[in-house]
Records
---
Amino acid sequence: MKIGRPASPAQAAENLLQRIEWTVLRRLDGALQGDYRMLIRGFGIDLADLREYQHGDDARTIDWNATARFGLPHVRQHNEDREVAAWFLVDLSGSVNFGSGMISKRSLAVDFIAVMSRLLTRHGNRAGAVLYTDGIDTVLPARGGRRHVVHLIDRVAASGTARGHGKPTQLGDLFARAAGVIKRRSLVFAVSDFISEAGWAHALASLGQRHEVIAVRLLDAVEMELPDLGMLTMEDAETGQQLFVDTHDAGFRRRFATLAAQREADLRAALAAAGADCIELSASDDLANTLVRFARLRKRRAQMASGGVPAALME
């Protein structure tokens, strides 16, 4: 019996990308009908002019405020910057290695980056990354092409086991470094479980003043609701501190859920204060469906912001 050699890191990244292309990306193409910009609301598009509506114009371009002002239907015309630079700010600290099942939060991050970077680069755009473990370790310049996407996947998958316990995550450092690295207006994905020292929302808000920022939150169900598993030793992935707990105790599980709910409320408030939309990724969810729901939500918001186009005209 011949046993094959294990795949090299680069080959593993190539295999992952091929799987993503044949599964998630094919489904996204069908669901988004080729309009991948549904995921990046209004990026790189500037209003150039208004003109009177003509037969055959797309009803979605009607500017209802201008229509009311002039008394005749008017449509928006745009100048579009077709090249998008996308940056992935990737939190690879200790807590991201956690997974209560077969899939860790790190794996969720790798799959998301593979999907979005390939979706963008195959349309002539560029993708780069800033990687964080217990410090800012690596900056991967924004480049195009499939080979670069494989390189990104390889680096994200291979990097980022925190070098030691005792140093809490400082997401503010990651966002501040990104502000210095990313010079041109870009699409920025902040990929993290957002288990961090406080203060990062201000740095994320500062990024949002120049760039389009989307928070990509990595979730595991056990972090929200602890199951009854009996006696367990729990370890803080950030500090290494261990605690022996009885998960059979219903009162303990209720207190855990209460604290988790408070953390959830604090996180949502911080993201709202930073002005960032949020994609939530969980091992129990389908990635393609999650991205399609997010794209449609942003499209509806954009339609409402542009003048309240009646929903019937959007179908």
---
Amino acid sequence: MKKIPFIKIFLVFFIFINISLEVVAKKAAIVIDFDTKEVLFEKNADTRNYPASLTKMMTLYIVFDYVKKEKLNYEDEMKVSAIAASRSASKLYLEEGSTIKVKDAVNALIIKSANDVATVISEKISGTEREFAKLMTKYARDLNMNNTTFKNASGLPNRAQLTTARDISKLSHALIKNFPEEYKLFSKTSFKWKGKTYKTHNKLMLNYDGADGIKTGYIKASGFQLAFSAIRDNKRLIGVYFGGDTGKQRNERLKLYMDNSFKKLNITNKTNKEEEEENKKIKLVLNGKDSYSIVVGTFKYRKNALKQIELIRSKYPKTTNNKESNVVFIEVKGKKLYESRFDNFSKKDAYSACKRLKKYGRDCFVRL
């Protein structure tokens, strides 16, 4: 048998890695009219991204379908395997050999976004998470999510697990349309498990008029994600946002896109005074109020970018106090780099912060 030269294998691998990096972690969004499926807003809606915990929406969709088909019951006890117990956080910290009811698992996925629970469900339905992922992808094709491939039930990092904002809007639509009673669970803000109360990660749902779900997601490679639904004047819109630099930035952007989409339909449930206040807030978002970041270093390796954040935070607490920090993947002239950032500055404060850091010989520049 003819041997393939090592250099060719390396080149194929290198090209594959670069292609994979280029198709993920991009900002993308879409807003659709639930009734007509009309797209009211879109930005990079077909760019492939890691779904993060939005993956659990499909896991839940299959659970609801299996219960409907009487293949599963909400009172069923599901056994926790060693594999499930070993999953990384976010999790319920289930112990190997213990059990959890399907109804409790559903709440844990929606509200806590528990990765160990996702694996328990996958093993209950398909025997292994790998086989369950194949089932998830089959369901995706049935829903015309043709740019989506699932590799696990939770959304934990997997290079081959990809989706798009448009496909997640299709999944959101299907969840609400096909399981209207079950979908009501997505509006819950907390649930109790063994004496402990867990609160929702969906902060936008708590303060957006008409909001009733759906799901947040985050892994480092994807940024902050959100699938969202809200009803005003009997009109439901579904919004999806991918690639947020922070949870706050993600929420502000999707809120803006949802508000503008409702306005396109001439829908508002606010008084004139409230409308004026809302417009002021929207202008602040558009003008970058508190959405500026300062970049304190650019590195080839993520670990070095993380060390820089720790260094700057420890040496200059006054400048970085109450500011979120992030390591953000960027590409500059074909080079893959990592930026060390501090977020949530106003424009004025961002430039002042960089001025102070430069005074002490530190590199710093402002990003919007």
---
Amino acid sequence: MSKTIFKYSLTTLFIFFFLNCEKDDICIQDIQETPDLILLMLDSEDNNTRKSPLGFRIRAIGTENILTQSNGDSIPLPLNTKEKITQFEFILNEGNDNENIDTLQINYQRIDQFINRACGYRANFILQKPSITLLNPGNDWIKGYIILKDTITDEKAAHLGILY
């Protein structure tokens, strides 16, 4: 009788410990973090032609970080996950006498996506109407924009085209 009680006790103890084990809290590196807005610079006369302006830089308002083109024709822009807007200065002919700065505000809605307990949440974005607001009208070198993909969930394709 005592051997049977011992076996049941040992089995119950084993099941109790097995069921109370926590899964590893490891975030796999293949999981993509919050995606950036991918921007293309396009010719205003032919929306299908990619065009890189000379002396061109982008600076996020409130920082000294200069953002540049990554793979020749696309520019990743990090969006502020704590706000519904992010503002950038688009600088043409930087450092020259004819330097021209257009300040653009990008309007979006953030949607949080739960990945898992280890990785937590990541933000996805949906561009709102109007997607871009020009904050300093005047001598504008940017002529307009085209929404190429209004939902920002990955960085595989461009989301916004700037016409100049």
---
Amino acid sequence: MNILKIISAAALLILGSGHAYADGDLPTKFLNQGTIGNTRHNLTQRQTSGGGPSGSNMDPYRNNYEEVCVYCHTPHGAATSVSLPLWNRTMKATTYTTYSQLGTTTLTQPVSQPGINSLSCLSCHDGQTAVDSIINMPGSGRYQASQETSQDLVFLNAWNNVGTDATVHGGLKLGECLYCHVPNGFVGAGAPDFTVAEIGTDLRNDHPVGIVYPPTNGPGTDFNTPAGVKGTARYFDLNGNSAMDSGDVRLYDTGGLVKVECASCHDPHGVPSAGPGTTFKPTFLRVTNTGSALCLTCHVK
């Protein structure tokens, strides 16, 4: 029997007792300091500083590759179909529902499908792909080119390590990762609420991505002008050092159109709040939004 069906049956028996057993929105056990290994983006579920969540409860639902970076990057055998640094995640062809389909009259700029600097995030957060679906597993002979665009469960099942190997490869959506990671999740799992991270394929209730930044900006307009250029990015030099730092909001030039993407406001590796050694800004933001500081980086209101 599928292990998810076994869990579902057990949950029904418990919930049928009439008691509330939800784990609720538990705080993270990660330190959120120093390195991505101390954040929830460490999909091995092992803090690099030691301690933290055991991961053994998670191992049947996603492969523990025992390396933090490998869930997104690989030094060899990287994807050739996307322009992302040493990219190692499966990226399915997905059509998203965008603000252009909302029928709003207040949106003045065109919106396209998400660009590559959003698709990298959505490759997990849209829930269409298992969080452990990578192209090149650690070790030799564990590479499959077709994994770039199509998730092959037989390939993922071939991984083995000293721990418990995954028999189910969960995506960030209801019925999979969000079977336990919801306020009314499986009893005793100790799973924090991840529903805020479940973006799905309907993007109309989030800040638009793939939206063109107004080319007319600066004094007298509703938008600030980026201060610097680095490669295909335009960045707001928030600390005035003439360099694009991880804490700088940025825009991405995609074929001559400068756009807002997920990575404009979020750094998946974490940004310290007040310099090295301090806690990362919540939800991987580049700029905290206290007093709408993040919004006012781009918007003049």
